[in-house]
Each structure stands twice: as structure tokens, then as C-alpha cells.
Amino acid sequence: MREKSIVANITVSSDDHAAQPDDPEASLRAELLGQIVAAQFDLEAVVAELSRTGGNPGDAQNQLQFLSSLQRTVGTANPVALAQMRSEIAATVSAAQAVAAQGRTAASPDDKTADLAETTANTRRTIGDISEKLFERKVLDPYLTFASPEDEAEFRRREAERQEYVRRELAKGTPEGALNASNAAVAQLEDARDHGADRSPDFDTLLSSATVARDQQRAAITNAGVSTSTNNQEATNTPQPTSSANSSTELDDVAATLLAAGVSLPTMNSAPLNAHGLSDVASLGPATTSRTV
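Below the sequence we write its predicted C-alpha cells.
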């Protein structure tokens, strides 16, 4: 069996001229479109990653729309306009690359931020479960005792306030909200303990879970370097001991100093600080400053 060779004949145009090189206009158009398409691919990947991680892809999407518009313009521009668009396209592509870089950074948080997000999710889940048991199922109620109907009424008032507070803070979905909610849950459990709830077989587990969640949440926030406005939240929501005679003396000294400075203080008799740190500060009149002319 004999092999046959295949011979390719090189042809030229009918006027016997050699084939012309690529059209310079077409080459420039392809070059510019290639730069735009590469930037679009980069931005599309960033948009997808930001959407997956819960980031905000708005800037990248806006840049994509601008690139699409520029791409259509390049596709129809005449040779003169095409040559003049070089610098504009280079600047636009550079800006798109910067947006893409920022997006990749936002979509890839550091380990501390990731740990905070995970801890916050765990805290919200734990406190949500404890809140359901405390405020809805009322698992500790059979063990509660009260000195008087008034004592119980005050307890129920604090309980309702904390229930609403926990609900509102958890709904925020933020690290700060999770910390605030855990503080309030611990405060409610300690309040219930003061009324006999520690006799319940569920009490130790509930208090331990709430305390651990609170401490882990605070540590994660501190470790991530997140600034919050919760500095006084724990003191506000945690039961406080009844003021002693010594603290009253100290308050008298402070009041005397303020009066000497010309500050008029509101009357405190109508709103005493109770044993659970929930004094009604809204009922106090504002302090006023007086000057002697």
C-alpha cells in the first residue's frame, strides 16, 4: 500500500499580490477589548465571592456596568476615536483592578474576624435557646418564691424588660447585640436564683451556658479589635447588691461637692436604686447648673 503525500498549495489573490498583514484598526480594537474583558472576568469573580461570603458587591457591580458600556463603545468606534480611547481604557481598567483587589480583601476576612463571626453565631444560638426556656417555657417558674405580691410584680417587670431586650439585641445579628443579649440572660438567671430558681435541676446548666457564651463573646470581640458601646451594658443588666451605708455616705460627699460647684441635683426619693440594678433613670429630673451673678 503506497503512501500519498498531501500538498498544500499557497494561493494569492487574483491580482497576484501577497496577503496583507492584519488591519491595524482591527488589532487595536481587539487589544482594547481584550483589556476590558479581562477586567470584567476579574470583577465577576469578585462579585460572586462577595455574594457568597455576605459582602457588599455594589462597587464591583457598578464597575462591571461601566466596563460593559465602554465595551460597546469600543466595538463601534471609528479609527480616530479608537486611538483616542487608549488612555481612558487604561485608566478604567486600572480602576477596575483596584476595585477587584478591594473586593477580594473584603471577601477574605482574617482569622480573627472569622472567629468573631463564628463565636457570634454560637452565642446567638445559645442565648436564643436559653431565652426560650426562661421567657416562653418558663422552666424555672415552679421553683420561684417571692416575699410578697409586690416582690413578684417587680420580678415580672424586670423579666419582661429583659425578654424584650434580649429579643431586640439578638435581632441585630451583630457581635455587640449578641454580647448585650448574653449579659441580660445572665442577669435574668441571677435574678431568678435570688428567688429560689437554683433549686431547679436545669438551673446550673442554664447559668453555665449563658456565662460561657457571654465570656467567649466578649473575648472574641476583644481579640478581633472591634470597638463596641457595651462598656456599661453588663453593669446595667447584672443584678447589683443593695447599697450599703458606706456607699450612701460616699454619695452624700459627692452631692456636697456638686452643690458647692453650683449644680442643682434632682430629688432621688421617688426613684430608689433597687437590688437588681434596674433603677428607673427616666423618672429622674435632669440635673441643672445654676450660676450666681
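The first strand starts at residue 263 and ends at 264.
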